[in-house]
Write a structure and sequence with these properties.
Shape: globular
Strand content: 35-45%
Helix content: 10-25%
Largest sheet: 6 strands, mixed
Order of helices and strands: EEEHEHEHEEE
């Protein structure tokens, strides 16, 4: 499988991993609840197959559709001009665009090339969202700070 992990400074509750249809390397998503104060977040971490197959993204979206306070993050392997991205942003908000609605090319990352994403439930307050231009892997990593 592609390697995924969920790390948190807050307690992780009810973690589970579910596997998705894959050709080649098996892909999976981690789902867990993380409580911060009196608010519980439904957190999803994934690494989709090459080109972010829509069948894999549909599986994740089915699982999170009726949940509140969602944070879905990972290497989705799809860009903002794809059907997978449009389907996802019909349900969740792109955290990077919540911070940079006009795009921010001063970060050293071309916005059209983004494949790591953090998607959040509508109404989530994003304080900051950045792509790290240094080579953490074969593409820029992403970090986002939310307020609750």
């Amino acid at each position: 499988t592609f390697g995924i992990a969920l790390l948190s400074r807050y307690p992780i509750d009810s973690p589970r991993t579910f596997y998705m249809h894959s050709e080649g390397e098996q892909t999976a998503t981690i789902e867990a609840q993380i409580s911060v104060g009196d608010r519980t977040f439904n957190v999803f971490v994934t690494h989709l197959g090459n080109s972010g197959p829509i069948v894999q993204q549909e599986a994740i979206l089915r699982d999170l559709r009726d949940k509140a306070n969602v944070i879905a993050m990972g290497d989705f392997n799809f860009r903002p001009d794809t059907d997978q991205y449009r389907l996802t942003t019909s349900i969740l908000d792109d955290a990077w665009l919540l911070k940079w609605p006009q795009g921010n090319d001063g970060q050293g990352v071309d916005p059209v090339d983004r494949i790591d994403h953090i998607f959040v439930s509508p109404g989530t307050s994003v304080l900051d969202s950045r792509y790290l231009a240094d080579p953490q892997s074969d593409h820029p990593a992403m970090t986002t700070t939310i307020e609750w």
